[in-house]
Specification:
- The complex is a heterodimer of chains A (about 180) and B (about 110).
- Chain A is mainly alpha-helical and about 180 residues long.
- In chain A, about 75% of the residues lie in helices and about 0% in strands.
- Chain A is built from 9 helices and no strands.
- Chain A is globular.
- The mean pLDDT of chain A is about 90.
- Chain B has about 110 residues and is mostly helical.
- The N terminus of chain B is likely disordered.
- The chains are: A mainly alpha (about 180), B mainly alpha (about 110).
């Protein structure tokens, strides 16, 4: 995705063009953020709600963006935090209603989802990813699906590259051992 | 895209026209709010600092290289040995962290 970040920052920093600049920002980064949120929560409706909250938070917190990171990293950070909040709330609700079978049925739900076109193995991969702790899951998704560098992930998550490498390594071990035991 | 060729994607599809519709909807939903002043000067300062550091490092490397080039060659062998050692450390270190790449993970799970 190529966007002239300096021009976008100029639009956002000017009172007369701030809203116009934000429209450019939404159009530029929506798909990228949607994909990350979607692979974290799996279904389209939840991803849509979280994406809306992400941009509303970003709009309300524009003055908190100091330019220490790229705009994309700042937005990723907001989106991932919003998603974590959603997942925590969802997990608490699920444990209150004693609905613990959900994790087991992720692959089946995906296979029935009209907006998922993978096969059974890919659905199982998504299921095992969902069983990883939040940070391992996020690091794995950003590396494996987005092919992001550790330096970029570090900018997004505010975690050292060493810790990210360790998280990725553990996630890969868990995933590969799951598939080996399946065979 | 390489991911498409390797089939490394998450297989989540986006409803047709969703992104365009979303962009219009979210702009309508944004609450009216006073102008949010942004402090982006800091970034320019950081970028300037990075450029200065890079220039200083380049100058240092050129200076050291020039000095080494014009001084005696007696120290060549120890330097090479040191470089070899450093290189093997780097390779081992990289191997630790390279782990299994995306393609291998994909191959493993689709075998």
């Amino acid at each position: 995705m190529q966007v002239d970040e300096s021009s976008l920052l100029r639009l956002l920093a000017d009172e007369k063009t701030q809203r116009q600049g934000f429209a450019v920002l939404v159009r530029t980064y929506s798909e990228m953020l949607y994909r990350q949120i979607r692979r974290m929560v799996l279904n389209h409706e939840d991803a849509n709600d979280i994406l809306q909250n992400t941009f509303i938070k970003a709009w309300q917190g524009l003055s908190s963006f100091e330019g220490r990171s790229h705009i994309s990293s700042w937005l990723y950070r907001i989106a991932i935090n919003e998603t974590y909040d959603f997942m925590r709330k969802h997990r608490d609700e699920a444990s209150l209603s004693d609905n613990n079978e959900e994790g087991v049925n992720i692959a089946n739900s995906l296979m029935a989802d009209e907006f998922f076109d993978g096969d059974e193995t890919e659905a199982q991969l998504q299921q095992i990813i969902q069983q990883l702790p939040y940070v391992q899951r996020t690091v794995f998704q950003l590396r494996y699906f987005e092919n992001k560098k550790y330096s970029e992930i570090s900018e997004i998550l505010g975690t050292s590259e060493g810790a990210l490498k360790a998280s990725y390594h553990i996630a890969v071990q868990k995933i590969t051992s799951f598939f080996k035991s399946r065979d | 895209m390489t991911e498409r060729h390797l089939n490394i994607n998450e297989h989540f599809t986006i409803p047709e026209g969703y992104i365009d519709t979303f962009c219009d909807q979210i702009m309508d939903k944004l609450p009216e709010q006073p102008f949010q002043p942004m402090n982006i000067k800091q970034r320019r300062r950081i970028q300037l600092a990075h450029h200065s550091i890079a220039a200083a490092a380049a100058l240092f490397i050129i200076s050291v290289g020039t000095i080494l080039f014009f001084t005696g060659s007696d120290s060549d062998k120890p330097s090479e040995a040191k470089a070899d050692k450093q290189e093997s450390y780097s390779v081992e270190d990289a191997a630790d962290y390279a782990m299994i790449d995306r393609t291998k993970i994909y191959e493993m799970i689709t075998e």
